[in-house]
Write a structure and sequence with these properties.
247 residues; globular; seven-stranded parallel β-sheet; 44% helix
């Protein structure tokens, strides 16, 4: 750990923190000394593995919380538990997200609603219930994981693209509202990142349109999170991690 970039004594909440991008973010923040509250939707085994690694390898405090981030009251209750367990929170990474792809002419209403509820409303719920702690501390860093789909659109993903574009607008509004309280809010827009969710896209013809000619890694996104955590003069921004596809 770089001693000049230490999060020792800080607590980070990472939604969708048990796998893929969320796992990489949880471990990166733990490696920097942060205590980690790992939010997961259903895979308890995966969440516990990440939690154990945070504790054993990085010697920080870590706990897991099963939560449907789209449930306003459940988020409120979980935030209260996190406050009880860790005392306060300094960093929030809204990474929880789902896809239910289809062409718009065939998309079911419940599939549109489910994606919006998790990807966009879920981020709102987390920010809404943690903002009081940030304001009280006069310190906070919120990072919303959006997507390059928010900037370009993606056929068959009108629900996902809309939810991630809404997340960018939410980011900018929150940044304006909370900046005077010492709270920063930024977004990251990953492109094609190798995860269990995207590994079947290795032959996607869109890869030819990526200037760097390759998919990104979860560590590339974790690098961006690390940068924004320490970038004290950056707020309301969207950092693309996309190999140049949306330039």
């Amino acid at each position: 750990m770089n001693e000049n970039k230490s999060l020792k004594g800080k607590t980070a909440v990472v939604t969708g923190g048990s796998r893929g991008i969320g796992e990489a973010i949880s471990l990166r923040l733990a490696s920097l000394g942060a205590n980690i509250a790992i939010i997961y939707a259903g895979n308890e085994e995966a969440a516990n593995k990440v939690c154990s690694k945070c504790i054993e390898e990085y010697k920080v405090e870590a706990k897991t919380y099963k939560l449907d981030v789209s449930d306003f009251n459940a988020v409120k209750e979980t935030v209260a538990l996190i406050k009880k367990d860790f005392g306060t929170v300094h960093i929030l990474v809204n990474n929880a997200g789902i896809t239910k792809d289809n062409l718009i002419a065939m998309m079911k209403e419940e599939d549109f609603d489910a994606v919006m509820d998790t990807n966009l409303k879920g981020a709102f719920n987390m920010i809404r219930h943690l903002s009081g702690l940030f304001i009280r501390n006069r310190e906070g860093c919120i990072i919303n994981i959006s997507s390059v789909s928010a900037l370009l659109g993606n056929a068959g993903q009108c629900n996902y693209s809309a939810s991630k574009a809404g997340l960018i607008a939410l980011t900018k509004s929150v940044a304006r509202e909370l900046s005077s309280k010492g709270v920063r809010c930024n977004a990251i827009a990953p492109g094609f990142i190798v995860t269990a969710m995207t590994e079947d896209q290795a032959d996607n013809p869109l890869l030819e349109h990526i200037p760097l000619k390759r998919m990104g890694s979860v560590e590339d996104v974790a690098d961006a999170v690390e940068y924004l955590v320490f970038a004290s003069y950056v707020t309301g921004d969207v950092l693309k991690v996309d190999g140049g596809i949306a330039m």
